[in-house]
Design brief:
The protein contains 5 helices and 4 strands. The protein is α+β, with helices and mostly antiparallel strands. Strands 2-1-3-4 form a 4-stranded antiparallel sheet, covered by helices on one side. A hairpin with a 2-residue loop joins strand 3 and strand 4.
Length: 148
């Protein structure tokens, strides 16, 4: 049986580890040394992988926030998706549109799941419950469903 896994990654377009990029990455990854962050940038390796989080949706949310902060700081990024087959990771570029659609998909799945739970427990979805669900999914995904 083949071992398949999936993750998304973020690389910086520049291979120069400038102070602004290092400062931003250090804020996000305080456990990594500046030397390790510099090495990843210069080697054009991923600075973040979504499989670092317990659940893909959490990693995807964090990736969206990181992309947003990099953009605000003027740091150009590249998104990739990686699939592991037979123990080897294969990476390919991921468009911003594709990534944005995945964010919307995660938000919609979470929303529909909460609606289904409400329907199963109460027998119907009241307008108040629907408003609470909308507020909860907006809270989880605010800033993630961004124009990239």
């Amino acid at each position: 049986m083949k071992n398949h896994s999936y993750r998304q990654s973020l690389k910086l377009k520049s291979r120069t580890a400038d102070p602004a990029a290092l400062k931003l990455l250090r804020k996000w990854f305080p456990d990594l040394s500046l030397l390790e962050l510099r090495r990843r940038i210069q080697a054009h390796e991923a600075v973040y992988l979504t499989d670092a989080e317990p659940f893909l949706r959490d990693g995807t949310r964090k990736l969206a926030q990181l992309v947003k902060e990099c953009g605000a700081a003027g740091i150009e990024t590249e998104l990739c998706e990686e699939v592991r087959s037979g123990g080897v990771w294969r990476s390919q570029p991921m468009s911003r549109t594709y990534f944005q659609n995945s964010l919307r998909r995660f938000r919609e799945i979470e929303r529909e799941t909460l609606i289904d739970i409400e329907r199963e427990t109460e027998g119907f979805v009241s307008p108040e419950a629907l408003a609470d669900i909308e507020a909860e999914t907006a809270e989880h995904w605010d800033g993630a469903d961004l124009e990239l």
